[in-house]
Amino acid sequence: MARDNVALWHHVSRARLTMRPFGDAFLEDYLAREGETVLSCVGGYRYEGPGAQLFEQVEGDYFTVLGLPLLPVLAALRAQGILIS
Question: Where are the alpha helices (DSSP H) in the chain?
Fold first, then answer.
């Protein structure tokens, strides 16, 4: 978060996703169901949808996997008085 070219807040969040073993039939079915949608998703999967089936383990924050560590962002906005505490 920045204001007037001054950094007010930054955050680094990591998530580790371990893909599960799957066969060609599963992958072909997944790609057929998701269609062009996977091309607009980071990593080629929608973790919030059928893409969750690609993984056997996920470590880290759900929102980080989606691309925005929402809870830390909300906390920073409250700390700045942008959101009501």
Answer: 24-34, 62-66, 70-79
pLDDT tens digits, 27-68: 999 999 999 998 888 788 989 999 999 999 999 999 999 889
| Alpha-carbon gap, residue 56 to 42, rounded angstroms | 18
How far is 21 from 74, CA to CA, in rounded Å?
A: 36
Which domains, and CATH codes, for the chain? 2-79 (3.90.950.10)
d(CA 17, CA 52): 10
- Among all chains, which residue has been given the structure tokens 């089936």? 53
